[in-house]
What we know:
This protein has five helices and six strands; from the N terminus they run ββααββαβαβα. By secondary structure, it is an alpha/beta fold. About 45% of the residues are buried.
Amino acid sequence: MAGRIRLYLGDLTEQAVDAIVNAANASLLGGGGVDGAIHRRGGPAILEACRQIRRTRWPEGLPTGEAVITIAGQLTAGFVIHTVGPIYGEHGGKEAQLLANCYRNALLLANQHALASIAFPAISTGVYGYPANEAAEIVSQTLQESLQRDTSISEVRLVFFAQHDLDTFLQHQKFTG
Ligand code: ADP
């Protein structure tokens, strides 16, 4: 189970996987950080697909913890799964649950599309201010639980932008078995 999870150092947008996960914002219309990088490298087709989702499914924006899937434009990955992480300190103590929802819902969506490989950034740990050590505990526990269920996913990559973030994850992860 934890054997299906691999840690990477590098750029999420270069991952050759079935889906990469975008740490989007509620607007789905692009932002900074990893979101900006995905839209820059993937091209305008992703933004158009996001606009379509806003028009048809989420006119008020994507709620925190939910996930949607789009094409990946010019990216190497096959799809982009967009999810909105919690802003640390702004959800009245529900931050951990909402961060877990991001990972859980992205994996459920990947399974619905029969995808085998998926790569995540460290959702919410940038501009949204989630402490990397706390995120590591939640993410490792959530992934372990999710992969215990019947799923098409055979590989989960956690892609860190900086060595320090990868080290923090390793120090604080709660994988068992
Ligand atoms: P959020 O708003 O959810 O905090 P950010 O994009 O600000 O999202 O940051 C999330 C994490 O993604 C941070 O750890 C940041 O360093 C990292 N990051 C930024 N750009 C990339 C990238 N191209 N590939 C992988 N990780 C990235």
